[in-house]
Design brief:
Number of strands: 44
Number of helices: 16
Shape: globular
Low-confidence stretches: none
Helix content: 10-25%
Mean pLDDT: 94
Structural class: alpha+beta
Distance between the termini: 96 Å
Strand content: 25-35%
């Protein structure tokens, strides 16, 4: 007989209790409750918001040290601080000065006040905060009568030595009455609208737009898709129905969907340009899928579901446009992607409440916009809402821009032009968006290779205003900088500059940049991203340090003057007082303070630093002085055959010189040793502890990857992300690559497994799928050009 084992114990597969709700964490704009709204008041900016009785107001000093002027007005325009239970105690000089500055965004605010009959002549305001206010401090009030509040973050022209920059305020509103679906407060119109059209959830609306006019398509509540289609009206008059064609558009524009900039136009099948994208605050759309159609819902088990294609048919029928089973469209705010396996995937939109796309009609067009009814997928955040459309006159001076957010929780900032934009715009139309700024990319009379040679042999000028500047001041400023940077700040003298890495506790890099020491407890950090300033504020708060960390990016724009002839040029235009170094005496990684031309000229800070591997200088000025500074540089450079350099040319010189770039050569998964800047981590000589030290000790001792140079055989291009292989195994990745005009060969910066990092090791660059095409390469010395830095030291 066979003995029987006891039956196995079967656990109850059902969990006791009710299901748990989904707890995914979202960016602040997506997690606001129905009573909550949030707004940003930029430094030297003004905000006007409608309020109702019982609403709660909380104003936060985001970075500290920023004054606030607060005014309140009844619905009829009468000023009355008593609406907030307050008394006006100061003259509203700050807000009046800002509104009279002529800056375009402030001119719109002034026009909005005029429409509401709010007159600030002789007005008094409630004064909040001061220069000693700490970051994060708040002031709260309750609205006692309906009307408007005006909030200003006043400030003058920044004194570079006093570091008195103007910084943002944040307004939080808690509404007494919860906001209902479709009732999120729309932002003010960008100008006087010619059309103000609500597209209700699950419907579509058609409308006519004349050539040159603007179309603003707004997401009312956030996370709502809208399909947009348009037709050349003159073709329709001739019976020709040629809608916007996304396949033609992708082919001609060379990208997944148009965005503000050089590749901004949507075309029809005959390649007639219909509209161009002028502004975009979301940045994520779709131009692959059809507008949702009956068959889509039929096939997933929802027969008869409302759909955008049939809604289009109904809206277009009165205009004589034949219906279709499925409409091609520009699907604004629809979040799709093609994954590594070729599968099209979709998820929740990125759009926040009030996000918009601004288009300009390039001919007379018939348009149709939908508010997508899809409630069967995340396409509309599982909760379809409304879309709003506004049209504006062709004469409105709207600038090209996209939204930039310093962090996922930050309010958007639209792309701005630097103080030197108009000077470079006279030389090129090729500008690209970089971290919230339009920067020149190339020049028709001086391409990337020509500017490369000008930098190596003569002198060039380039716009680097997008670099992030942060003022760090206060009794604990030196202690904070020693804690957040890998370099030994205690050894940094007044007037000196040091290049450093900034790391997370696990050793991964947040950013790299330069630190200027202006005094015992006065520093200026200049990095590539906003994250550095955010990280410093978080650390200061966690440690309870007495220090102010305030952004000055918009108060300090900068030109780089680079090349062997740069000293001659700068010496010709810079006046310095006796207690500051003259250009001829300025050492490498030091700075001086002076003026352009003579003691009455534009004030500037000049550092002997750069990103080209050559002798060079960076010139920092207030935006109001940008014209004077550029003119002085350009005129003094004319006898030296000065050339402009854009980002394309800069990439050539910085790669060859081994200068790393965030997102290409390092990320938060890369430590300084793996990024080729291990010299910024003095583990033995720096006595003070710093963030990431313990992890970097461990990572250095057990390193598995090394940053190296590569010399590529032949003339086939390689690029960022290409794999490095030994046989079938991937052993590394190309970080940055270029064809060197100096040698005529392709070179690269790469990260490779330590076992294959010796100079002279032969590897292969995998192209196409990484296997079926291989390009031979050899590990080489790094950097490829002037490894001892003799040229910038000269």
């Amino acid at each position: 007989m066979t003995s029987l084992s006891p039956p196995p114990i079967v656990m109850n597969p059902f969990r006791a209790g009710p299901p748990r709700p989904t707890r995914s964490r979202r960016a602040a704009a997506f997690s606001l409750g129905p009573r909550e709204e949030r707004y940003r008041v930029p430094g030297r900016g003004v905000l006007v918001v409608e309020v109702a009785p019982g609403d709660g107001i909380e104003i936060t000093n985001a970075e500290g040290g920023q004054r606030c002027e607060l005014l309140a007005a009844h619905g009829d325009g009468r000023l009355d601080a008593g609406m907030l239970g307050l008394r006006a105690d100061i003259s509203a000089d700050g807000v009046r000065t800002l509104l009279g500055s002529g800056e375009p965004s402030l001119a719109r605010v002034a026009a909005g006040l005029a429409r509401r009959k709010i007159d600030l002549t002789g007005a008094r305001a409630v004064g909040l905060f001061g220069t000693s206010t700490k970051a994060g401090e708040t002031a709260s009030f309750t609205v006692q009568a309906g009307g408007w509040v005006v909030i200003a973050a006043p400030g003058g022209v920044m004194d570079f030595q006093a570091q008195d920059t103007a910084t943002p305020l944040t307004l939080g509103l808690t509404r007494a009455t919860p906001r209902q679906q479709g009732q999120f407060a729309l932002p003010d119109p960008l100008a006087d609208p010619l059309l103000d059209l609500r597209v209700n959830s699950g419907t579509a609306e058609a409308y006519l737009v004349r050539a040159g006019q603007y179309i603003q398509v707004l997401d009312v509540d956030g996370r709502q898709c809208t399909d947009f289609q348009c037709f050349d009206a003159r073709k329709l008059d001739r019976g020709i129905v040629h809608p916007l064609d996304v396949t033609t558009t992708r082919t001609i524009q060379g990208q997944a969907y148009p965005m503000p900039g050089p590749r901004a136009k949507y075309l029809d099948q005959e390649m007639t340009a219909l509209v161009e994208v002028v502004q975009d605050t979301c940045g994520r759309h779709d131009a692959f899928a059809l507008a949702c159609a009956a068959k889509y819902y039929d096939d997933i088990g929802y027969p008869g579901h409302a759909n955008c294609s049939e809604n289009f048919n109904a809206a277009l029928a009165p205009h004589g446009v034949p219906g279709r089973a499925g409409w091609m469209a520009a699907n604004f705010f629809f979040n799709t992607a093609i994954d590594a396996h070729g599968v099209m995937v979709a998820d929740e939109p990125w759009s926040r409440p009030g996000d918009y796309v601004l288009l300009r009609a390039l001919t007379d067009i018939l348009c149709v916009s939908s508010a997508c009814p899809d409630d069967t997928s995340p396409a509309n955040g599982w909760h379809p809402t409304d879309i709003h459309v506004r049209c504006y006159a062709a004469e409105e001076p709207f600038r090209r821009s996209v939204a930039w957010r310093a962090t996922p929780d930050a309010e958007p900032v639209m792309t701005r032009e630097s103080a030197f934009h108009q000077n470079f715009a006279a030389l090129t139309r090729d500008f690209v968006e970089y971290r919230g700024f339009w920067l020149p990319n190339s020049f028709p009379e001086c391409d990337a290779v020509e500017s490369y040679w000008a930098c190596r042999e003569g002198v060039v000028v380039l716009d680097l205003s997008a670099l992030r500047k942060v003022e760090v001041t206060g009794p604990d400023a030196a202690a904070l900088m020693d804690w957040v940077l890998t370099r030994d700040v205690s050894k940094l003298g007044h007037g000196q500059v040091v290049y450093s890495a900034m790391c997370y506790p696990h050793g991964g890099m947040i950013d790299d940049g330069t630190l200027f020491r202006l005094g015992d407890q006065n520093f200026r950090w200049i990095g590539g991203a906003d994250g550095g300033g955010v990280w410093m504020r978080e650390q200061a708060e966690a440690l309870g340090l007495e220090v102010n960390i305030r952004s000055s990016t918009d108060q300090m724009h900068n030109l780089a003057v680079q090349g062997p002839k740069s000293r001659e040029l700068m010496a010709d235009i810079l006046w310095t007082p006796p207690h500051q170094p003259a250009v001829a005496d300025l050492g490498w990684f030091r700075f001086t303070v002076g003026r352009i031309g003579d003691p009455t000229g534009a004030p500037v800070v000049v550092s002997r630093t750069g990103y080209t591997g050559e002798l060079g200088y960076e010139v920092f000025c207030h935006p109001k002085d940008g014209e004077a500074v550029f003119k002085a540089v350009w005129e003094a450079g004319a006898p030296l055959d000065i050339r402009p350099m854009g980002l394309a040319g800069l990439d050539l010189v910085r790669i060859e010189a081994g200068l790393i770039f965030a997102g290409y050569d390092f990320s938060d998964e890369t430590d300084p040793f793996e990024a080729g800047v291990g010299f910024t981590v003095p583990l033995k000589s720096k006595a003070a502890d710093f963030i990431g030290r313990e992890a970097l000790v461990r990572r250095k001792a057990s390193a598995t990857r090394k940053f190296v140079g590569l010399e590529i055989e032949g003339q086939e291009p390689v690029g960022h992300g290409d794999c490095l292989r030994m046989g079938r195994a991937q052993v590394g990745v190309v970080c940055s690559a270029m064809r060197s005009p100096r040698t005529g060969t392709w070179i690269a910066l790469a990260r490779i497994d330590l076992a294959h990092a010796d100079i002279g090791t032969t590897v292969e660059v995998g192209r196409l799928d990484g296997h079926i095409k291989r390009i031979p390469a050899t590990v080489s010395a790094f950097p490829h050009y002037d490894p001892k830095k003799d040229r910038p030291r000269s």
